[in-house]
Design a protein that fits this description.
Number of strands: 18
Strand content: 25-35%
Largest sheet: 7 strands, mixed
Shape: globular
Distance between the termini: 51 Å
C-alpha cells in the first residue's frame, strides 16, 4: 500500500468513532477486520466481529467508542515479507491479517492471504416449525405460524433466504401442526436454490424435541426457531462455538430493561442511595443455536422437550453452554404486534 493511498483504505477506522459505525463497516467487508488508528493515522490496534461481541458481553454498548472494544495487543511486522512468508505466519499464528508498520507506527500495508474464498458453510440448519402458534390466534387458526407473511413472504422463507445469503444451503424442517402447508409451499427447496428435507413430528415435541428424530446426527448443526428473523452472522457464530468447544451455543440479544421506579440502595434498614429508574442489561434467548452432536445422549426419542429444559439439563451435567451476543438486527415474530406491523 503506497503512503498516498493510506487514508483511503477501506479497513481503516478511527478509535474515537462509535462502535455502531464499526459494526456497519465490518458487515460490509469481505475480509471482516479493521485497523484502528488515531487522528494522526498512527496504528492503535485492530477490531473484528469477535472483539465487538466480547465487548458487549463485558457490558459495553453500541454508543461506546471503538477504542473501548479494540484489541491493543496485535501481531504486526516492520519488515516487508514475501507472500510465502506471509502465509506461513498467518497459519502459525492463526490470524487472518498482518499489518506492516513503519517506525512512526503508520500502516504501510495489510498482509492477507491473496484469495478470499466465497462464503459457503458445510452445515445443516434445522428449523423448528411444528408449533401451533397459540400466542398468534386467530391468525394461526388455519395457517401455521411459519407461513404467516412478513414483508410479503412467509416467515420461514425469510429465514431460509437470509441463511442462504450467509452461506447455508442445507435445511431440515421439523413439522407438525398444518405441516403439509409448509411442505407444499417449500417442497424440496429447489425454487429457493437450497435443499430441504423434513422431519414429521407425530405429536408436538417442543423447541428441542425434534433433535431426537435426526438421522445420522454426527455433525454440528444450527437450530433456529421458525418465528425469528435475524441478520446474524452464522460463520462468526460457528467459529465462536468451535473455539469455545461448547456443547451448545445460544444466541443472545442484549436489551435495556428500565425499572420505572426509584431503586433504594440500603445497608440494613438504612437508605444509603437511591437510583431513579435504573437501567439493566438483560441477555435474552434469541432462538438460534449451534449444537454439538454429543448432545444426543441427553435426548429421548419422540419426547417433548423445550430448549430451556435441555439447557438446564446440560448445565446440571456440567456441560459447556456458551452465549453468542447479537449486535445484528433481530425480531421475534412470535409476538402478534410484530406480525401485524409487517403485514400492514
Amino acid at each position: 500500500m503506497k503512503s498516498s493511498n493510506l487514508k483511503k483504505n477501506i479497513h481503516f477506522l478511527f478509535e474515537d468513532m462509535s462502535i455502531k459505525y464499526a459494526i456497519n463497516k465490518l458487515s460490509s467487508l469481505k475480509e471482516r477486520y479493521c485497523i484502528v488508528l488515531d487522528r494522526k493515522y498512527s496504528f492503535k490496534g485492530t477490531i473484528t466481529d469477535g472483539d465487538v461481541r466480547r465487548g458487549l458481553l463485558k457490558g459495553l454498548t453500541v454508543k461506546d467508542e471503538i477504542k473501548s472494544f479494540s484489541r491493543k495487543k496485535n501481531f504486526v511486522t516492520y519488515k516487508e515479507l514475501s507472500q510465502k512468508k506471509i502465509n506461513l505466519i498467518l497459519k502459525k499464528k492463526d490470524i487472518s491479517f498482518l499489518p506492516l508498520l513503519n517506525k512512526k507506527k503508520q500502516v504501510l500495508d495489510i498482509y492477507t492471504k491473496k484469495k478470499v474464498e466465497r462464503l459457503s458453510l458445510d452445515i445443516t440448519m434445522l428449523i423448528m416449525a411444528g408449533g401451533k402458534g397459540m400466542r398468534l390466534r386467530p391468525l394461526t387458526n388455519k395457517i401455521p405460524k411459519p407461513m404467516l407473511l412478513v414483508n410479503n413472504r412467509p416467515l420461514i422463507e425469510n429465514i431460509i433466504v437470509n441463511a442462504k445469503k450467509k452461506g447455508i444451503s442445507n435445511f431440515i424442517i421439523s413439522i407438525n401442526y398444518l405441516g403439509k402447508k409448509i411442505k407444499r409451499y417449500l417442497n424440496d427447496g429447489k425454487k429457493l436454490g437450497v435443499k430441504i428435507k423434513y422431519l414429521n413430528e407425530r405429536k408436538p415435541l417442543g423447541t428441542a424435541g425434534s433433535l431426537s428424530l435426526l438421522k445420522n446426527f454426527n455433525k454440528t448443526i444450527i437450530l433456529s426457531n421458525a418465528d425469528i428473523i435475524s441478520d446474524i452472522d452464522y460463520y462468526e457464530m460457528l467459529n465462536y462455538h468451535n473455539k469455545k468447544k461448547s456443547m451448545l451455543t445460544v444466541s443472545a440479544k442484549i436489551i435495556k430493561n428500565t425499572i420505572n421506579y426509584g431503586n433504594l440502595i440500603t445497608k440494613g434498614s438504612r437508605v444509603s442511595n437511591i437510583v431513579e429508574k435504573p437501567v439493566k442489561d438483560l441477555k435474552i434467548n434469541a432462538g438460534i443455536y449451534v449444537i454439538n452432536p454429543k448432545i444426543k445422549k441427553f435426548l429421548k426419542k419422540n419426547t417433548y422437550q423445550d430448549m430451556t429444559n435441555l439447557i438446564n439439563l446440560l448445565l446440571k451435567e456440567k456441560c459447556k453452554v456458551e452465549i453468542f451476543p447479537l449486535h445484528e438486527s433481530w425480531t421475534d415474530y412470535g409476538l402478534k404486534k410484530n406480525i401485524l406491523k409487517h403485514q400492514s
